[in-house]
Design goal:
The structure holds two protein chains of two kinds.
Chain A (H helix, E strand, L loop, with lengths): L1 H6 L6 H51 L1 E3 L6 E3 L6 E4 L5 E5 L11 E6 L4 E7 L2 E2 L4 E4 L8 E10 L8 E13 L2 E12 L3
Antiparallel strand pairs in A: 1-2, 3-4, 4-5, 5-6, 6-7, 6-8, 9-10, 10-11
Chain B lengths: L2 H4 L6 H56 L5 E10 L5 E15 L6 E14 L4 E12 L3
Antiparallel strand pairs in B: 1-2, 2-3, 3-4
Classes of the chains: A alpha+beta, B alpha+beta.
């Protein structure tokens, strides 16, 4: 049988080989392009989704409060539960002072601000205060792909005290070599209970 | 052992075409999925923008009610939903509507105002109108 096999030495013609290689090459190329488009798009969309989620959570944190204190004294300091609000002179930050329940808490406050790159916060609760500003945005990996272009508070109500503020928050993320995606959120928040 | 090598039939044109079609179908499906996901994300983003605008307006109405005992109602005020390519803007229209109502639990009259903030815009993705509505009931002090 072995001899019989070796006797047939017909092989493939050049046309057959070229055709087969061309067909499989085409199939592999089409598959490769399809999958590479899928994975690159998937990566881009994931980044944009993360940006949207993180930016939205940042707005909610400013409004509803940053978690401060230890396990037993945990509270949320933010605009909604503040007694006094003070907007930074350039509008890029806000200090929220919660109502003081005793003498130990009269200096409690949280300050949200834009440091030129990211949104950060410092706080003080009783004897506890931040040794360095914590990151509020972005919560995921910080790198040069993310840029905050606006984080501005403006007073909305009339009168001497700031009771309602508007937050304008713009951020963008580089999702590929020459493509960026952005989010732009505008909302108002009040301290009135 | 050499059995499989004996068959040198190869593949027919039909087999190659069917394989190609299966691969093509898979890739087209993936592409459609990606395009759909991108559109859905954009739609969700605009919904979220409109929700934040509407909830912010509700905060303002709450302030007006608590401090001045009034409401700042309006209709069809323009708000920005999204910045589109080539410098265009997707505008929405926001309205605030207040309806006084009452209910009678346990025989007592409880008066309240139904405050409704709505944001409407024409979604360019499917050319349909989208609407976000937020409603809160502000009960009167007894």
């Amino acid at each position: 049988m072995k001899r019989h096999l070796l006797v047939d030495q017909k092989g493939y013609t050049m046309i057959e080989l070229v055709s087969a290689i061309a067909i499989f090459g085409f199939l592999i190329a089409v598959s490769a392009v399809g999958f590479s488009v899928f994975f690159s798009k998937f990566g881009e969309l994931s980044k944009w989704a993360e940006l949207q989620k993180s930016a939205f959570e940042c707005v909610l944190t400013v409004k509803n409060g940053l978690s401060v204190g230890s396990h037993q004294t945990q509270q949320f300091y933010g605009v909604a539960n503040a007694e006094n609000l003070t907007i930074d002179f350039n509008g890029n930050g806000i200090t929220c002072k919660p109502p003081a329940h005793d003498a130990e808490n009269i200096y409690d406050e949280v300050r949200f601000f834009w440091d030129g790159n990211y949104i950060r916060a410092t706080y003080r609760q009783g004897q506890i205060s931040t040794s360095y500003p914590v990151y509020v945005f972005p919560q995921f990996k910080r790198n040069n792909d993310i840029r905050v272009s606006k984080f501005r508070f403006t007073k909305v109500n009339s009168g001497p005290d700031t009771k309602v503020v508007q937050l304008d928050f713009d951020a963008e993320i580089k999702i590929s070599q020459n493509k960026t995606k952005r989010v732009s959120y505008i909302t108002k928040m009040t301290t009135i209970k | 052992m050499l059995g499989p090598l004996v068959n040198e039939r190869g593949m027919t044109l039909i087999e190659v075409l069917v394989t190609s079609l299966v691969i093509l179908f898979t890739i087209v499906s993936i592409y459609i999925g990606v395009v759909f996901a991108e559109k859905q994300m954009l739609r969700n983003y605009r919904d979220r923008v409109a929700t934040l605008v509407a909830s912010g307006e509700m905060e303002w109405q709450y302030y007006q009610n608590r401090v001045f005992n009034t409401y700042d109602t309006f209709s069809e005020r323009q708000v920005v939903i999204d910045r589109l390519p080539r410098g265009r803007t997707l505008w929405g229209r926001m309205s605030v509507d207040v309806k006084p109502k009452f209910e009678t639990p346990f025989g007592h009259y409880l008066y309240y105002d139904v405050v409704q903030v709505s944001v409407v815009w024409n979604e360019p993705l499917d050319r349909r109108q989208r609407k976000i509505v937020i409603r809160e009931d502000f009960y009167h002090a007894r």
